[in-house]
Amino acid sequence: MAAIAQAEVHHLSVPQPNPIRSTYGSSLDVLGVVTVRVTDTDGRVGEGWTYVIGGGGASVASFIATELVPLVVGADPAQVRGLWQRMFMHSLSRGRKGVAMYALSAVDIAVWDLRATTAGQPLHAHLGSVSAEVPVYGDGCWVSMTHDELRAAAESYVARDFWGVKLKVGADLDDAVRRVEIVRDVVGPSGRVMVDANQRYDLLTTRRFAAATADLDLTWLEEPMITDSIHDYARLRGRVDVPIATGENEYSRYGFRELLEHEAVDILQPDVHRMGGITEFMRVVALADAWNVPLAPHTSWELHSQLACCSTTALVVEYYEWLPEDFFAVRPAIANGVVSVSQEIGTGVSIDPASFEKYAVTT
């Protein structure tokens, strides 16, 4: 296989059309996107990207350009796992979580895109898919929404036959419970309602919230507590009548292994753009398979749908339109609440060339 001859890094900033506030009150008005395009000596191109909510993309772009590109140029894409290991060990003392792993993720996705393109296959076929489609659920029911806005958002997902609806909740437990009641009313008694607390609660508050919503039949409760407190998750799971989901803030297979070994989670939520790319994502897929634990990847439905189709325990992927449709030149389509595998060569997702100019961050 031809070696990688060049790697380009682009830092983009995509404004969000509606003001968003997290459960902690921080403004989420922009999405940073860092892309990597690798070109081999035969002229074939692979594209990968990561995203940073609310900013911070400059740090990721800099890390890729200064620390990872020298390792990538000259590498054989056929040995992608070896390249991943070199990048991981090179970054080890500077961050096994956060910026370094965001950066590694973007590069790894680009190399896998190049591999699949070289093989003339869609990524899911290159990896070995087990299903032709995966359902999607609707996210984006933010805590900053009024109750009427929340109802309207939930109704829009129900109208599209989505698998379920997820809402955010904040520190006010009375308001949190009321928000769950609203979404339950919209989806009906047989619909699926998921709740994301974005690490807002402690253990006692989480137990109170679970008790207060026990009769509302939650499909899962996501990241109720700080995600590093795995022992608290172990103390919580099995003692409340709702499945516990977490994983979007784990940055390698090692964190997921700890969650499983401590019996601290019911549903795993890896994010390919944060946790080390496709190489590491597929290792977590294997862990989920071995432990027979459902997989529900975090955001980025465009790429995660293609990866989830390679998992025997994939449950659903998360839909939220962080990036407008015209940001992409190619991406999968959602129909009747499901995403089918793409027949496009490579990842099945590519960024429109115009987006590199439209959203470019200039320094």
UniProtKB/TrEMBL annotation:
One Pfam family from the record: MR_MLE_N
Alphabetical UniProt keywords: Magnesium, Metal-binding
Superkingdom in the source lineage: Bacteria
Domain Mandelate racemase/muconate lactonizing enzyme C-terminal per the UniProt entry, residue ranges: 147-243
Cofactor: Mg(2+)
Name of the protein in question: Mandelate racemase/muconate lactonizing enzyme family protein
Naturally occurring in which organism (per UniProt): Aeromicrobium alkaliterrae
